[in-house]
Amino acid sequence: MVAVRDEAVGEAADGSVAGAAVGISGRGSVGDIVFRGFAVAAAALILVALAAVFIFLGIEGIPGFDVDEQHYAGQGSFLGLVVPLLFATMYAAVLALIIAVPFSVAIALFISHYAPRRIAVPVAYVIDLLAAVPSVVFGLWGAVALGPYLVPAHGWLAENLAWLPFFDGQPSGNGRTLFTAAIVLAVMILPIITSICREVFAQTPRLHEEAALALGATRWEMVRYAVFPYARSGMVSAVMLGLGRALGETMAIAMIASPKVVVSLFVIGTQNPQTIAAHIAQGYKESTPDRLSVLIATGLVLFAFTFLVNALARWIVARGRAK
Amino acid sequence: MSISVKDASIFYGDFKAVEDVTMSIKPKSVTAFIGPSGCGKSTFLRTLNRMHEVIPGAYVEGKISIAGQDIYGSGVDPVAVRRKVGMVFQRPNPFPTMSIYDNVLAGNRLNSKRIKKAEADEIVEDALRGANLWNEVKDRLGKPGMGLSGGQQQRLCIARAIAVQPEVLLMDEPCSALDPISTAAIEDLIHELKSDYTIVIVTHNMQQAARVSDETGFFNLKAAGQPGHLVEFNPTKQMFTNPDNPDTEAYISGRFG
């Protein structure tokens, strides 16, 4: 794609330069050259920035793999620290996805196939606005408003669903738990999943929808027969993008859940598994150089992990398209 | 099943697309609609199974009944109407992710009906035989429907439509995307299907109307932006030899359209 565009721009520029030689205005060619230079520079810059981040993480973080024991937050070694953190990162993100995906798909379907236009457009707009709320604000809301509000729910879960490992234990008295954090995280990733799903749902070929309807499908059956099969790979990439955002999200979890470096499925207690991003956010201010390099090393692990998740998502999407 | 239409007008919001159609379609026969582009024949066809309602703001005035039942009566579910009135579209549209087998059964599986394997096999074979496709696909029923040629896909769509044993089969220019050999196959099929179904077909091709239909309706519009209307509805033979209306003759002899 990039190569093709590049060539086309080049040709246009050459063409108009030749035109100038025979007396046709050459004004367009200057614009072309400037714009082309700008586009190439912008594209190169983003790659350079990414490489710089990676190199920084490498240089600063690698020493953190092996420093004095005391810098690993009581976990003894780098692996002892990063494994629980990575677990918690994935756990929080997966919890958020479990909550967000059904809502996102339902909202997207409502917008694309159920609501009349004059309702669908404002709803879509409001959902997109949700993406513009800063994550600090979400964190504040979760810690100050949602958490206390959910305290009774915590009690109920501990009482009635204690046979599930997620709710088996003493519930938190202030609601500042991974459970609350996961809900807030779900609200934060909902807009991106919704808007991508909505786009792909809306692109379902009319022909396929009519095929289902003409057979006597109800609206929901039409969605199952025509919309979902068509949108499958798009939905996967939407979910993966949501996962990517949830993995890297810092503030909501750092502000809401009272942390501990621990591998535990229990989500409604006072000590919640801490994610990599929250661990860095809470630790880097008062750190010695050694401690800092440990934190950066965990950042490197997070970077590599999200990179893998994104690569996986792209692979799944590409495989879906090839069929 | 006979279809009777009385004073039907079709609107898209404020725009009147078709005006005052009255006709009576005989059971187990083929009825063709011809006419220039934009005259409303496809729109009218879609009102016979309420598919026009897919477009927001579209509605019908007048009365359309199938086998004596008003399909626009209060309490009539459009979904139920479409189960009785099958439809085949201009371009073949098998479900792309489904196998040939599952495509044929798609309509039968709606409404979460459970079908036994043996019964399902029988439905698939009957429908594919009915659509003259069985011999070509019997060895690859598990393969995707999209792997077939255009003409085969269209016959697959016909098999899918007749698998639910509708009373009426609507065809909206079913051959316009097909080559002449595939077209001939579909036309042969229409001849065979009319012993079981009431068939209504829209076609751009007058020779096709003459070849396949028993009765023909000619739609026309007075001018662009005006609603389409039914000019003449008569036995096909008469339409093509001795039409009542001079406009029909002009259209059929190729003087416009």
Automatic annotation (TrEMBL), chain B:
GO terms for molecular function: ATP binding. NCBIfam families: 3a0107s01c2 (TIGR00972). It comes from Nocardioides luteus. This is Phosphate import ATP-binding protein PstB. Residues 3-246 form the ABC transporter domain. SUPFAM superfamilies: P-loop containing nucleoside triphosphate hydrolases (SSF52540). The keyword Transport applies. Keywords: ATP-binding, Nucleotide-binding, Translocase, Transport.
